[in-house]
Structure formats: structure tokens, C-alpha cells
Amino acid sequence: MSKPAFFEISWEVCNMVGGIHTVLASRVHEVQQRHGEDGYIALGPDIPRAEGLAPEFRADIWDPELRDSFEDHEVGVVMGRWLVPGEPRCLLINQSRLYQRKDEILGRYWEEFGLDSLFGDWDYYDPVLFAHAAGMVIEHIRDRFLLSARQEAIVQAHEWMSAAAILYLKTAAPEIGTVFTTHATMLGRSLAGRKADPNFYRSLASVDVEAAAKELQVSSKHSMETVAAHEADVFTTVSEITAIECAHLLKRKPDVILPNGFGARPVPLEQRARAREELFKLAELTTGDAYDRDGTAIFALAGRYEYVNKGVDVYLNAAAKLQGELELRDGKRVIVYAMLPAGHAEPKRQLWDRAHGASAGPPLRCTHDLVDEA
Length: 374
Prior knowledge:
Elements: E1 5-9, H1 19-26, H2 28-35, E2 40-45, E3 57-59, H3 64-69, E4 76-82, E5 89-94, H4 102-113, H5 122-146, E6 153-158, H6 164-172, E7 177-182, H7 186-194, H8 209-215, H9 219-231, E8 234-237, H10 240-250, E9 256-257, H11 269-287, E10 296-302, H12 312-322, E11 333-339, E12 344-347, H13 349-355, E13 368-370
Parallel strand pairs: 1-2, 1-6, 2-5, 6-7, 7-8, 8-9, 10-11
Antiparallel strand pairs: 3-4, 4-5, 12-13
């Protein structure tokens, strides 16, 4: 291979948590064009998945020699394909055997990089050990296969959950190029989510970073993000406004801004029409009304339930202003969806009953039973 091997590490490979999953999945085709199908390997966590969810991983031995080489390795590795368009080569990492060495690993990172893991909890240790294990796997591939072929390599780690791989490779394989990408700083997200402050970005310069991280109980995650931003060969983020966060909160200005580019290939019209019709059907089941397809506009906001950070407050306020304003709506009815997983259980029984012929009854505001509906 004449092109560098490209390893991409994310907690959201084969594990949809938020938008990073979509970011990575939507660009597989372009990455494979640049590095070749056999030159791109995605690494994600090997974690149990709930029954009934669409599969994201398919076992596939795309390199028997590589698979066999991991037979006695300290890190568990499952080889297969990530089931997104392009089905890239994928390695799922099981870091469970590293837990017995957790304190040794974190202690070494403190001594070498000043990484503060003192206030970490299980939601910190698990990703850090996963990323450390991913670094070990890449080092193994380098030793067994890349060195003899004089093959160069690049590693891109997304968010603090994958950042320990950069720290590991910094000493274990320093010739491998490393890229650290933050999609939103941990401390910035926590500060912004605390209250809706219109002057948030103007006030960042006055933030006592360490005190704020401790107050918001994100000091260990913030430390990992900061150390990785400084130790990576290249530091990137996804927008100019997030770059402002990075400069003030992580004390390093990103080298490159890589805007998220969803929809590089247009969604086919037939698929769009089917999706729109499904949304109309759901609206009719929940509200009990019938909707003129041509005389109705549909808006949808989707994402993790972060009421301020994701702009849900702005979205709902804007929707409220449309109520009764025919001129603003160009005479159309408007359906507004907020697609937010928020401590939900199964779909409401009334939806099932209405879908199977029961009378409409009062309108529903929510499709699912919520843990805290009020």
C-alpha cells in the first residue's frame, strides 16, 4: 500500500450515542476513496447491545493473519464490519482485562502527561481504558505488519473518550501521526448547559477553568481533553465557535477546522417521500387530526436531550410564535417534531390502539412513556 493506513477511534463506532456516530458514518465513502477500502480501520468499544435494536456490527474475518495474531493478546479484539454505508473494516475492543491494571495505567499518565484522573468514575474509566486498549491494538498492528512493509499510519481520535490512545501512542509509537478532534469541549458543554447565557462566548475569557471543571464535576474528563489537545500532532474541531471554546478552555487553538458535512450524497426523493409520509401518519395518530400533505409543513429537531445546548428552548419558542400567525406560515399548517430520547420507555399504549382502529381520544403530546413525564 502506498497510502498511509488510517485508524479512526471513537466510542460511537458501532455504538450510536449522539451525533458523532452520524458524522463518522456519513463520511466513510470519502475516507475509503482517499485511503482505500483496506487502508481504513474503525475502532470502537465491544459492548453489549440491547435486544431488538438494529445491528451495527457484522463479524467478518477480513484479515485472518491479523485476527490470529490477537489470540493471546491482553486486549480482546473482535473483527468485522461496521454496518453503515460502505461497511468499513472494524475492530471492536474489549478492555475488561485492563481493569486490574487501571491504577498503574492512570498513574503512568499522571507521571508522563500530568493527566488528572483523581475524580474519575466508571463513566471515565471505561472510555479511558478502551482508548488505551485501542492504542495497544494499533501498536500491535504497527509491530506485526506495518513496520516490515514500511507502511506509514495516521490515527484520529474523537472526543475525550478516545483520547488516551493518543497518549499511549505518543511513547509507544511516536512515528504514527495523531489527530485529536473535539466536537464540543466537555467544560464548554457543561457550562452552557447550566444556564442559557446569551453572553456565553464573550465571557469565556474570564472563566477560571480548573475551578469551573471541579465545580461541575468534570475535572478528569476536562483534563483528558486538555492533555490530548496539547499532545496530539494535529488538533481539530468542527466549527469556528467551538474553536473559541478550545482556545479559552483547553488553551490550544485548533490547527484545522473540519465542519461536519452531513448529506454529501443527496437522499433519494423516494426515500424522502416515504419518511415524510411516516411523519404524517404519526402526527395523525398522536393528534387525531387529518393533514393535507401539500398544505402542511413539517419541522424536526433531533439529538440528545440537552435542552439548552441543543437549542430545544429556542426551537419550541419559535414554534410557539408561529401559533396563529398565518402570514408567517404562508397559510400552511405546521407540524413540529422534537425527536429527543429522554428517559423514555416503550411507545404509549394509545398509539398502538389508534394504529389498530381504536377511537382517537384526546391528543397526545408525546409518543412514549417517560420516566418523568411532567
